[in-house]
Automatic annotation (TrEMBL):
Coiled coil, from the record: 136-163
Keyword Transmembrane helix tagged: yes
Location of the CusB-like beta-barrel domain: 263-333
Start and end residues of each Multidrug resistance protein MdtA-like barrel-sandwich hybrid domain: 96-248
Chain ranges of the YknX-like C-terminal permuted SH3-like domain: 342-408
Official protein name in the record: Efflux RND transporter periplasmic adaptor subunit
NCBIfam families in alphabetical order: RND_mfp
Amino acid sequence: MTPRDPPDLPADTAMDRATERPPRRGGGWLLALGALILLTTGLAYGAQGYYSRNRETAAVAEQARDFVPKVRGAAVRPSGDIVHVSLPATTTAYDVATIFARASGYIEKREADIGDKVKKGQLLAKIAVPELDDQILQAQATLGQLKAALRQAQANLDLAKVTWQRDNPLVIQGWITKQQGTIDVQTLKAQEAAVGVAQANVNAQQDQLRVLNQQQAYQQVVAPFDGIITQRNIDIGSLVQADTTNSTFLFTIMQGDVIRAQVFVPQDLAVGVTPGVKATVQVPEIPGRTFPGTVTRIADALAPGTRTLLTEIDIPNPDGALTPGTYCTVELQIPRKTPSFSVPADALIFNADGLQVAVVEDGVAHIRKISVARDLGTEVEVRDGVKQGDLVILNPPVELAEGSKVQISPAAAGIP
């Protein structure tokens, strides 16, 4: 073996070296070229997609920028001269009287009961007071005695006058002493005083008899006005007292041909409420019928706790359909004192800046702040911020801003 010859190797080592021989150069370049083509194709496709999306985005942005949305609108109109407001109320009787006993005794007759319609002066009950009749008879007899004493004193006075008229010339001529003349004068004065006393006694007795007769008249309990008996507290045989502290309650009578209704008008409407304002009353239990009335009395001062004005309404009730104590609804027709405008509730914008509306002028939306006077549900009455003829946007879009271009739908706005 020469030095140039490699040493002998095992057979498996020779096979491994034969396996680890590098591949041919031509196959590697083809693989690299294919990968490059694929990468280039992918980049081109991605660039084309990116460019296409950018163009679409720009087109959408341009379309959104140039888009003018169609919105519904409504014209602002002035509110009417009359404010119709409905308020709860309770009916009361026009007049209510609680009748007490003015004479002490027993109920002899009872001519009325609960629910009876009575006329003014009609007998309701009669009180039996036997001792009062005896007092009247005694007072009449005493009056007769006093009148007789008056006549006697008058006769004595006439005699004294005649005596003085006869003795006066004789005293002057000296035929009768001056002392006798003085006696005649003083007797005349005494008789005049006696007549005065007798006349005063007669007058006093007549007054006493008048009081007793009045008490006797109180035995007849009569209705003070036309009405309906709503309460009764006596029966035949009941003992009644007429003293000032424990007088017995007999009847309660209410006048029903005219009914009153009391309502409390809020402060924002109270300015226009005056006597003569028309009203309409409705009762839930009487559907389909209204009762016209008129404001007749107002308190002229607001209640400090509720800021409301007490108002009374008189309602004719000739057929008695309305009864006192009934819950009802009163619609007042109050003349408007301050001008306002009606705006649909759909046009309101609620945000941090308060209540606003969007008004369209020459196709451009302008946001205006408003102040609401009354909320009527589907509409609101506005004091300021808009004027008659303004076109407000209904259900304004959330993205609507000051200066946005809009297009009003003619049909919605009522524009020909």
